[in-house]
Amino acid sequence: MSNAPVRKIIHIDMDAFYASVEQRDAPELRGRPVAVGYAAARGVVAAASYEARTFGVRSALPSVTALRRCPELVFVRPRFDVYKAVSQQIHAIFAEFTELIQPLSLDEAYLDVTANRRGIDTAWATAKHIRARILEETGLTASAGISYNKFLAKLASDQRKPNGQFAVTPEMGAAWVETLPVSRFHGVGPVTAAKMKRLGIETGADLRDKPLDFLRAHFGSAAEWYHAIARGLDERPVNPSRERKSSGSETTFDRDLTEPAEIEAGVLRMADDVWGWCDKAQAFGRTVTVKVKFADFRQITRSRSFATVVQTQEALRAASRELIGLVLPPEKGIRLVGVTVSNFEADTGPAEALPLFGAEDAA
């Protein structure tokens, strides 16, 4: 058995982040079903408020379907510059409590608060302080999961959404996982969940009961991960230095395009979006990939790798133009294009250990 102290991990997840920012900034939207995205025929929902979610409106849902489910739905164009600025505020708050922060996206992150940087009694109380600071600073609510590993903390943050928190202690972890549907598990997507169901695996308990050899036979290299999480085990550390491996942007056209000039213009807009991130982050890659989705949903990519990183916006535009040129004129209409850059080249002293819970804490 390891003598290492039990880790205290918090997973913070903002509540309906994009939509909540829009409702915060436009009081007339509060209490109404809001979708961030475009109501165009080819549009999709980027985010939905909780009022919209009661109608079955979710992110990635086609806008036409969303409006059919909720005719009163209000579409708001995304303001990614605003979301990024708010995200920076939130991450600055995280830094008040720990240096071990692993962002997953603009609106969620893992925090390792095992070292008690602020002298707060427990990890549970720390999560409450963080959520209160976020509300005070941004006017937005966040939910939190607290546990002894990342897998359980992420599951726990969904348990009392919105604006709540839930903790999974070492004593309850394995038994709690057994009660959950495997479709909730990180790393089990819809396709895998359907495959597991065909194999008689619908809950954590079902997954735990399958021998490792059985899992290897059906799930290959993912078997060890499934075997571990079915027992509430996850040894992954919170990694604040995790490097981003790529930056990409894509767009779905309002209609299928066949004119080379229009298609190229769309690709160049995506290249400019990607360059904006690369320039701001000072992260540059050697490989440029252009993605194309045709009217029949068939998808292809074309890539080129360079000896050195792409260091200018014009160089990225030129590479993107060259790659889209390989499929022009198109054999059929094009509904989506995207550009991605990849192949990037780019301690405090000992502290008192922080308990997960105190006797005074209540879930």
TrEMBL record:
Q: List the active-site residues.
A: 108
Q: Per the record, what are the reactions this protein catalyses?
A: DNA(n) + a 2'-deoxyribonucleoside 5'-triphosphate = DNA(n+1) + diphosphate
- E.C. number, please? 2.7.7.7
A matching Pfam family: IMS_HHH
The reply to whether Magnesium figures as a keyword in the UniProt entry is: yes
CC annotations in GO: cytosol
- Domain UmuC per the UniProt entry, residue ranges: 9-189
UniProt-listed Gene3D superfamilies:
3.30.70.270, 3.40.1170.60, 5' to 3' exonuclease, C-terminal subdomain, DNA polymerase, Y-family, little finger domain
Q: What is the protein's given name?
A: DNA polymerase IV
Its source organism is Sphingomonas gei
Give the taxonomic lineage as stored in the record: Bacteria, Pseudomonadati, Pseudomonadota, Alphaproteobacteria, Sphingomonadales
Per UniProt, what is the name of the gene that codes for the protein in this document? dinB
